[in-house]
Design goal:
By secondary structure, the chain is α+β, with helices and mostly antiparallel strands. It has 11 helices and 6 strands. Helices cover about 55% and strands about 10% of the residues. The radius of gyration is 37 Å and the shape is elongated.
Length: about 500
């Protein structure tokens, strides 16, 4: 970051030479600090050891190994890596319908209109006026007697005023508003990124809950068959009634896990509908299944130097810093003399047709210079407050960068760890399934008591649900990585006509 220019440097812009030469220098001078984008962190990666090695493999859907490709660019439509048309349709609908997107587009347009409005201050302001008056002047006021006669007086004039931007204060205001427009642009990209990631994650969570419900129903069916078997054994006198009651209790316990899953699914559907811009009653039942998702093998990992340009939150923080830097210049310029030039030209006549007759013209040219002599320290402290706000914006920028790098590191660790988790959960499920078969066989042979069967069945139930969750987490982790890297917005066009200034609207149109 460049250092602040001093007031002495500003005054140097007007020292020496004739008045005309000094005015030329004034017009080109811009006090205050010039903005320079902060340097990217000087690191080579997001983890101490660099990119993780290829992930573990599990022999189940969603268990493929993933490879991290350093420096690879992100696709604009990153959600297409899952190879699922329903997810593509969900994202398209959300972008078209969600009001947050429309609000972000309108906010960007408003910021751009403000830039154009402020740029108008760099030009002379021209106004025209006309008037007609019928009046009577008292003869007594002129030491005359008798009645005075009424007459008409007409006036038409054009006035021009121009505040000379001697110190660049107006141009700094334009610069600050341009930075605000950039901030709104990156807020728009952040809205797209958050919405698309939320839609994908919600669709995956929906698929996970459906898979958990299906697995629970399969377990319930298996336990119902086991209950029938135990009941037949009891009727033959081979087992005690307590074994039947234990199996009934186990079945009821498993059935009791189903309503909470169904509630979660219903609430997840409501959340997904909200992301799509629909009301809950407009749910048409479209959904994604885990088996229809493709886990991408190759995962792009941007270079750290690129991340600070790709993450919308970092870019927005940089734009805020830019605005704060320009605002310092505005406040420094307010402390210096203000120069204004004005002129007017008009005509007066007793009739409208006489306005352009010889001798009816009147004109004036004036210049003014004003300087605040005493204000109780208001201008000085305004400037100091702007400097403090700039320092705050810089600290906030650094905090945003740190959080962004942490997000990427967390995503990489999650992908690595959750691949190992799925592998372990799959092994646990297979072992639990074998344990159920063995315990049931041993029970029928009288080698173990029924509590051993119940324990193995409960372990298997937990293992199945945990494996389904681990499968879904692999897909969610992948979506989180793309989100943490910025989502590839630079490879697509998110701005629409709603974000552009309107140049063809009626002058007084209000909608």
């Amino acid at each position: 970051m460049r250092k602040h220019k001093s007031l002495a440097a500003a005054s140097a812009c007007v020292k020496g030479g004739a008045l005309a030469a000094s005015l030329l220098l004034l017009h080109g001078c811009m006090v205050g600090p010039d903005f320079t984008a902060p340097d990217a962190p000087r690191v080579n990666g997001y983890l101490p050891e660099g990119n993780p090695a290829p992930t573990a493999t599990a022999e189940v859907h969603g268990g493929a190994s993933q490879v991290f490709l350093r420096g690879r660019d992100l696709p604009g439509e990153w959600w297409k890596v899952f190879g699922n048309k329903q997810i593509d349709a969900f994202v398209t609908e959300a972008i078209q319908n969600h009001p947050d997107v429309a609000a972000a587009q309108a906010a960007l347009r408003a910021a751009r209109e403000n830039v154009l409005a402020q740029e108008g201050s760099l030009f002379p302001q021209v106004s025209a006026s006309g008037s007609g008056t019928r009046q009577v002047v008292s003869n007594a006021s002129q030491n005359q007697s008798g009645n005075s006669s009424p007459y008409n007086l007409y006036n038409a004039s054009v006035s021009v005023s121009y505040v000379l931007d001697a110190w660049g204060g107006t141009r700094r205001q334009v610069e600050a508003l341009q930075a605000q427009a950039e901030y709104q642009q990156y807020q728009l990209e952040a809205t797209y990124l958050s919405l698309t990631a939320n839609v994908v994650t919600a669709a995956i969570s929906d698929a996970s809950l459906r898979a958990q419900i299906d697995a629970t129903n399969d377990i319930i069916k298996s336990e119902e068959e086991q209950l029938k078997l135990v009941q037949r054994q009891f009727e033959l006198g081979a087992v005690a009634q307590s074994d039947v009651l234990s199996q009934q209790s186990n079945l009821a316990q498993t059935q009791a896990t189903l309503p909470p899953l169904q509630k979660q699914l219903a609430q997840q559907r409501n959340q997904l509908m909200a992301y799509l811009g629909r009301l809950p009653s407009e749910d048409r039942g479209e959904h994604v299944s885990l088996s229809s998702l493709t886990l991408p093998r190759d995962l792009p990992v941007s270079l750290p130097s690129a991340l600070v340009r790709q993450r919308p939150d970092i870019a927005a923080a940089e734009a805020t810093l830019h605005k704060a830097t320009a605002t310092v210049g505005v406040n420094v310029a307010n402390m210096l003399p203000q120069i204004q030039i004005s002129s007017s030209y008009g005509r007066n006549g007793l009739t409208p047709s006489s306005l352009f007759s010889p001798g009816t013209a009147a004109w004036s040219v004036a210049g003014s210079l004003s300087q605040t002599v005493f204000d109780g320290g208001t201008l000085y402290h305004d400037k100091e407050a702007a400097i403090a706000s700039r320092e705050q914006a810089f600290a906030t920028y650094k905090s945003t960068v740190i959080s962004a790098f942490r997000d990427v590191a967390d995503s990489l660790r999650a992908i690595e760890a959750d691949a190992n988790t799925l592998k372990a959960q799959l092994a646990y499920e297979k072992a639990a399934q074998d344990s159920v078969k063995i315990s049931r066989t041993q029970y029928m042979a009288g080698a173990v008591t029924y509590p051993s069967v119940l324990t193995s069945e409960q372990n298997y139930q937990q293992a199945v649900i945990a494996r389904v969750k681990a499968q879904a987490q692999r897909f969610s982790d992948t979506a989180a990585l793309f989100q943490s890297l910025g989502g590839g917005w630079w490879n697509r066009v998110d701005q629409t006509a709603q974000s552009l200034p309107r140049t063809n609207a009626g002058y007084f149109q209000d909608h």
